[in-house]
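Give me structure tokens for this 329-residue protein.
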Amino acid sequence: MHDYDYVMLFLSYFSSSIAYMEPKNDTRISEFLLLGFSEEPELQPFLFGFFLCMYLVTILGNLLIILAVSSDSHLHTPMYFFLANLSFVEICFISTTVPKMLMNIHAKKKVITYKSCIMQMYFFLLFVGLDNFLLTVMAYDRFMAICNPLHYMVIMNPGLCGLLVLVSWVVSVLHSLLQTLMVLRLSFCTEVEIPHFFCELNQVIQLACSDTFLNNMVMYLATVLLAGGPLAGVLYSYSKIVSSIRKIQSAKGKYKAFSTCASHLSVVSLFYCTGLGVYLSSAATQSSHSSAEASVMYTVVTPMLNPFIYSLRNRDIKRVLNVFFRRKP
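Here you go.
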């Protein structure tokens, strides 16, 4: 609770500096209403059970990945180091939105306080950004492993791996902090209904009764730079990987090289395709429920499927998990 207050105080302090010379409405609100998926009472028990199961499966699956990587010395390699970090981020990512949604469904209320909404927005942006950067780092790792196998362990040393993860955290923290501070400068009047199951940045900005031009500019610019840049890095890495694999003479060698990045390619495709799907669905339809339903794909389904993709397609992970579950107490 104390850490929560410190963060809010920190955000409020910098927000006051940004908005000092801005004309603003003195009207303040204390809470928002999260409309969620459906208002039909008979659907609420189903929604609660459905999302609770998905949440628990996601937590358990990603914890097993972390446990497998940390418990087996053969998995103490750059690829699995990044995978363990990704699993940790997935747990935090889904925990940012789903528990609050489950609480609201169980309590039969839709209220989220202003402070809680700001904090949820901050951590959602933080972990979705980390997801994006870590997938890019993992693409670079696969590029080095396939295109420079003789120098792979020298280049991808523990120092560089730690630095790449640290930079991902720093950039994500700064980005989420900037976006949150930009929201804190806004005034909200009477419209407090968010047509979503969490405080999504764009939806919150649309509710403001003050000028949002600067917010929209920062949001779109950050999207282009922080989503387009990593995507370009992933595409470049895989173009080089495909080029290297094509030069391998034997079919067995090609299969072995491709199998080392098949799981990551599946996760990357799932992440970007679901994100693009959410954007296209929100642009094509004005239905708030359609946008919220589409968002489930990348906020809930993707974190849940990642452990299955890596465990089912990865022999090392399957081997460690089999040993773990067969171990006698």
